[in-house]
Amino acid sequence: MERKNIGIYIAIAIVFIFAVTGFFFTFDSIGTLRTDVRNVEMGLELANKERQATPVEQPQKQETQGAKNTTSSEEQTTDIVTSIAAVPTAILMDIQSNPDLLPQTNLSLSVESVNKNSDNTLSVNFKIYTNKAAGYSSIDPSKIFSIVALDSDNIEPFKTNGRFSSMPAKSAISGSVLFKISQAQNNIILQVGSGENMKFYEIDFRDKSYKETVIG
Asked: What tens digit of pLDDT does each residue of 43-69 get?
């Protein structure tokens, strides 16, 4: 009987020891948790103080896209080139291609119109037909057209529009050449062709007519 009581006392003592140990372990864990929470709170307080102490940079005012693109009509002075007088033509001529692409071949030139423009320029609009060519060919339109000046050197084109350096066979290529002229100039003599194969045409912008003429 006494042994049984001793066993009970020992079991109670063991349970008590475990209970006390668990209590202290839990209490220590709670204390550690409180410390961690306090550290986090202090960290947040310090970060908040630093944020308040740092001056906030004000964003620079940016112009809206509409404000950038919106300008007065006085500032937007885009010149629109218009045709003052257009003279339709039906000038046809056979010319020879340049020797830079062999073999040289005969090409057909068709001058469709001559226009006097609002920006003191004259444009000659034409097409090149390569129906007789067996391969690629080329021409230089600035060497085909010029404006005859009877008292000085001929006026050469200052610009060529179109791609004529490598023209495929059996095709039609459109283009134009531009000349500088006086606004008061209402009559010109246009030279078409080069060398011994040249023709001259008198262009009258007042009555929008043209005719072949002879020079010399």
From this structure: 566 556 555 655 555 555 454 454 445
Nearest to 117 by CA among 155, 85, 162, 164: 85
Q: Answer yes or no: pTM beyond 0.70.
A: no
Contact residues for 190 (Cβ-Cβ < 8 A; gap 6+): 114, 124, 145, 146, 147, 148, 200, 201, 202, 203
Alpha carbon distance 84, 122 (integer Å) = 10
Q: What sign has the CA pseudo-torsion 173, 178, 183, 186?
A: negative
User: In 3-state terms, what secondary structure has residue 166?
Assistant: coil
What fold is seen in the domain 83-213? Immunoglobulin-like (2.60.40)
Domain boundaries, the chain: 1-53, 83-213
Task: Report the chain's mean pLDDT, rounded to a whole number.
Answer: 80
CA dist 1 and 152 (Å) reads 148
Reduce the DSSP state of residue 14 to 3 states and report it.
helix
